[in-house]
Write a structure and sequence with these properties.
The complex is a heterodimer of chains A (about 450) and B (about 290). With about 450 residues, chain A is α/β, with parallel strands linked by helices. In chain A, the strands form four sheets. Chain A has a six-stranded antiparallel beta sheet with strand order 6-11-7-8-9-10, covered by helices on one side. A six-stranded mixed beta sheet of chain A has the order 16-17-18-15-19-20, sandwiched between helices. In chain A, strand 7 and strand 8 form a beta hairpin. In chain B, helix 3 packs across helix 9. Chain B starts with a strand and ends in an 8-residue tail after the last helix. The chains are: A alpha/beta (about 450), B alpha/beta (about 290). Chains A and B meet through strand 15 and helix 13 of A and helix 7 and strand 10 of B.
């Protein structure tokens, strides 16, 4: 008999869960994973002596699991018994018979013990989705292995190289290094090939693996946030000569690129060989201090009033009240002077989604069509003491409030506003409206 | 079947349970707190009231007498339903009994039993806009109510053009279209000239109901609209917009004949009273309430 108690890792369906206790009774140490991906994590963290993997255990299929286990240096010799309905593909056929399971486990453990060391290099292929790129790299990282991951993604073909468990370089199209790595780590779709060997021509990345993974996630989030503050279709140009301003490298490269040229955000991000977030941060700060300006006449506020994500959440907010494809809610627009409010709404109507009602001075004066049947009415309550009851009626039940300052007459509202309140500028009201829609989406997302 | 008076202990347990169910299954619930007028002999008046009140409740409602007040739990009832029931009770009680009734609804007004009871109690205690007038109005017919409101000095009197009344009516109709989770009810009468008011209505059924007063009592058919045949001279005399939903209420009345200022208020009690008087006057028993 073996001196050591063998550890079995089980990833089974709830219907077969009884097998675990039976195997424990038979003297095995048994670890149970809730699904395939958890099994993979557990296997990487603590390599078992054998894995019993049900093809229906969820999240990960048996084939990919086996392949990933094979590609990992520490796990490549761990036998994987697959459980399934098809006797041609599975090592054990459902429904499981306990005596058969024990026999198969014993036999596989014995084979593994006797098996000769040394296997040839294997190539693993697969599709991203159930597994993220980080999931694919983790086993190599854990075993301090080397290799390269070749990715075919919607943003292009890329490669990530690892050496002794650290990421040493990445390439994506014409980009190398961290810019390529961060873009690749942001990908969730595509296919991959994993080679257990391969060396980059030079090392361009020196940060530790975990830092890079966290940094990629942070940069992705922050990039989205920064981009939402910049008009996507507008063109920017440098308004100061880069030779005359002392600046940190990213900023001066940005200014050099934009000196005498007008590029959109996308073009700028693609043109500079810095991580995307660094480029956008530089652009944003240069824009705020006036070193970079919008090319007049190019601004197009309407195109991206709401991002697809925000629209999706808002549809959910409205969807609760949706009837046969039409969903309605209202936003109250408040201001002390009706003229200022009207001017703000006229400015808003430059957005193609906003339509003004020609003759209405108060009440539902504009309609914001978010598409897919979701409509937000913009409601202006009538001003003046006499009309407080009517204003109260119009404002109550509003999803949110836009305030054109000053809006002191509406102080009775502020003690208990019906929804989030955002101030906005009568001359340039689009950012305010966008901010309110985002806030509404946040409120809805929290529910 | 008429509900009977339950013990306070049973009521408390049932209230907590009903609210838990409403929360769990996304349902609605409301409750009424009934208190005697301050000048009445509290407990005796309540006992008398309880007897007549039990006859006015629905068979699923649960009632208890707790101290100086009656608590009524209305399962599966939204705020509008509670307001309409409150109105019905106030109108049908014998004259000798005078009560104050406050209502609160889950989830609009709160989530826990204690909070809802406290809010309903508070609403029963506060005089409310036009409440003094309301008791008197209740004994009158719909058109007398409108006349009395116009003569009364309590409510704000904005200068309202016919166009402004139509705009307010249009807003009430739009609000009805928007208030699709909360039921609403609206009644409009603009001298029979709604001038495209109904264009805003979507083709499908609303969760609220709209009454449109017209001399001929006819108009383009819509599943949520009832055309009410109203005498032409009355329509020529009065413009009115009445709106009531779970989240808001609005009453506008204008003397169209004299072009005098109208009156208006955002008072659920008053809106409820006038809508129920309007429905009584024209035998409108369908739909909501």
């Amino acid at each position: 008999m073996r001196e050591r108690v063998p550890t079995l890792l089980l990833a089974l369906t709830p219907a077969e869960a009884g097998v675990a206790s039976y195997l424990r009774e038979r003297g095995f140490r048994v670890l149970v994973a809730a699904h395939g991906a958890e099994a993979l994590d557990m296997a990487v963290a603590q390599p078992p002596d054998l894995v019993l993997f049900d093809e229906d255990c969820g999240v990960l299929d048996a084939e990919s699991f086996s392949r990933i286990v094979r590609s990992n240096a520490r796990l490549s010799r761990v036998p994987v018994l697959t459980v399934g309905r098809d006797p041609k593909r599975a090592s054990l056929v459902k429904p499981l018979r306990r005596d058969r399971v024990v026999l198969a486990v014993e036999a596989a453990l014995a084979r593994a013990e006797c098996a000769a060391a040394g296997r040839g290099e294997e190539l693993t292929r697969g599709v991203l989705g159930p597994l993220s790129i980080v999931d694919l790299l983790q086993p190599i990282r854990a075993s301090r292995g080397s290799g390269k991951l070749v990715l075919h993604t919607p943003v292009g073909e890329g490669t990530i190289w690892l050496s002794e468990g650290e990421i040493v370089d990445a390439r994506l199209g014409r980009y190398w290094g961290k810019k390529a790595l961060f873009r690749l780590l942001g990908c969730v779709e595509g296919s991959f090939e994993l080679y257990p060997a391969g060396r980059p021509p030079t090392r361009r990345i020196y940060e530790p693996f975990d830092f890079l993974v966290l940094e990629a996630a942070r940069q992705k989030d922050e990039l989205g946030e920064h981009l939402s503050q910049l008009p996507p279709r507008a063109r920017f140009t440098a308004s100061v000569d880069p030779r005359n301003v002392p600046a940190r490298p990213s900023l001066s490269w940005l200014l050099e690129r934009l000196w005498g040229e007008a590029l959109t955000v996308r073009e700028i991000v693609d043109a500079l060989h810095l991580p995307d977030l660094e480029v956008v941060t530089a652009l944003l700060s240069a824009y705020r201090i006036g070193w970079v300006q919008l090319v007049p006449g190019q601004s197009d506020p309407g195109e991206e009033l709401v991002s697809p994500e925000i629209r999706r959440v808002l549809l959910r907010l409205l969807g609760r009240t949706a009837q046969r494809g039409q969903a309605l809610a209202k936003i109250a627009v408040l201001g002390d002077e009706l003229d200022r409010v009207r001017r703000a709404l006229r400015a808003l109507s430059r957005c193609p989604q906003v339509q003004l009602r020609a003759r209405a001075h108060w009440g539902t004066v504009a309609v914001l069509d978010l598409g897919e049947g979701a409509i937000l009415d913009l409601v202006v309550p009538p001003p003046g003491e006499d009309f407080v009851p009517l204003a109260r009626f119009l404002v109550s039940g509003a999803a949110g409030i836009l305030r054109v300052e000053p809006a002191e007459a509406w102080s009775w509202l502020t003690s208990a506003p019906p929804g989030p309140t955002i101030g906005f500028d009568a001359v340039d009201p689009v950012p305010g409206l966008r901010a309110l829609l985002e806030r509404l989406a946040d409120v809805e997302a929290e529910r | 079947m008429v509900p009977r008076l339950e013990s306070p202990r049973f009521f408390d347990a049932f209230l907590v349970r009903t609210l838990a169910q409403a929360r769990r299954y996304g349902r609605r619930a409301a409750l009424l707190v009934v208190t005697p007028e301050p000048d009445e002999n509290g407990r005796a008046a309540l006992r008398r009231a309880a007897l007549s009140l039990l006859g006015l409740l629905r068979d699923a409602d649960v009632v208890t007498l707790q101290g100086e007040e009656l608590l009524v739990l209305l399962p599966e009832t939204d705020r509008l339903g509670a307001l309409m029931l409150r109105e019905r009770i106030l109108r049908h009680l014998p004259e000798a009994v005078s009560l104050r009734i406050g209502s609160a609804a889950y989830p609009e007004d709160g989530f826990d039993a204690e909070g809802l009871v406290a809010l309903a109690r508070q609403r029963a205690a506060e005089p409310g806009q036009g409440a003094a007038a309301a008791r008197e109005l209740r004994s009158l017919g719909f058109w007398e109510c409108l006349r009395r409101l116009l003569a009364d000095g309590d409510l704000p009197r904005p200068a309202l053009s016919a166009a402004a009344v139509r705009a307010a009516a249009r807003e009430a109709i739009l609000e009805l279209c928007r208030a699709s989770t909360v039921r609403g009810i609206a009644a409009v009468g603009c001298g029979g000239d709604e001038g495209g008011l109904l264009d805003a209505l979507p083709a499908h059924r609303l969760s609220g109901r709209l009454f449109v007063a017209r001399p001929d009592g006819a108009g383009p058919p819509h599943p949520s609209v009832t055309y009410v045949p109203v005498e032409e001279e009355r329509l020529a005399r009065f413009d009115f917009v009445l709106f009531l939903a779970g989240h808001s209420a609005y009453v506008l009345v204008r003397d169209a004949g004299e072009n005098a200022p109208g009156v208006h208020a955002a008072d659920p009690g008053l809106a409820c009273l006038l809508i129920s008087r309007f429905r009584d006057a024209y035998g409108l028993r369908e739909g909501i309430g």
